[in-house]
Amino acid sequence: MEPWVIILCSLGVLGVLGLVLGILLGLVGKKFEVKEDERVSAVRAALAGANCGACGYPGCDGFAKAVVEGKAPVTGCTAGGKKTADAVSAIMGVTADVGERKVGRVRCNGTCDNASERYQYTGVQSCRAAAALSGGPKACSFACIGYGDCCNVCKFNCITIENGVAKINDDYCAGCGACVDACPRSIIALVPKNRTVVVQCRNTETGKTARLQCKVACIGCHRCEKSCPSDAIHVVNGVAEIDPDKCTRCGACVETCPMHCIYNFFEGLQESYDWEK
Fold first, then answer.
1. Which of 46, 97, 166, 203 is most exposed by smallest CB count within 10 Å?
2. Is 164 within 8 Å of 40 (Cβ atoms)?
3. Strand 159-162 to 165-168 pairing
């Protein structure tokens, strides 16, 4: 038999075997196919699609599956907000109370103009790296270091570094909390957006020391306490703390604070006491 005949026969046999095996695999796969709940794809389509991980699951696919399996709440997609929660609730046939939308607040105003420096840092432009070197370049060990670790993890591009301090845009913040975890100083907090009055200082040093470290540090003078008509603000461990349940956002503490470290946020825009008063 000619060699080319043998080759063609061999190819023909292999082709037939491949076809038969392909058909068998297809039939076996179809018989033992694990059907996915149609709601998984529906929930996935309703999500924000940011894959930010704020829900506690590895991406939107993992969260969608967990919702259908009853392992995750229908309100777990913070990036999608109320619209997404309502859509997922409808798919799952339940009702859910989303609650007040949360946003990040930076509790520091230790800008390059306000905060004193202990040394000139020239290392890796990372907050964690700088903090590991003698606590960072700023004299205040509670201050925003300002190298943008929070910016780098934010998938919604709502954080910028302005004059050495992180600023969060309420209009774009999804409340995912990635920046909270990234900040080595723990000065970013997730709070309901309607809680607009914030003490932008975490310095617990004594008044004299705090002032040397930062021009706008809380000195624990208690004037805010005395001015508050609803008893919502008190000095705790040397720094003012606001009880959000009592605060009426009247702004009395903002105007009274001699250090101008209490701010009022409104619709994503920072409003502060007039420094010229």
1. 97
2. no
3. antiparallel
Contacts of 2 (CB under 8 A, 6+ apart): none
- How is residue 114 written in tokens? 């306000």
- Taking residues 125-141, report their average pLDDT: 92
Residues 6+ apart with CB under 8 A from 90: none
Q: What is the pLDDT of residue 2?
A: 63
Fold of 40-92: 3-methyladenine DNA Glycosylase II; Chain A, domain 3 (1.10.15)
The DSSP secondary structure of 228-246, one letter per residue, reads -TT--EEEETTEEEE-TTT
Closest by alpha carbon to 93, among 155, 17, 37? 37
May I ask the CATH class of domain 102-271? alpha beta
pTM, entire model:
0.73
Give me the amino acid identity at 1.
M
pLDDT digits (tens, 9 = 90+) for 137-175: 999 999 999 999 999 999 889 999 999 999 999 888 888
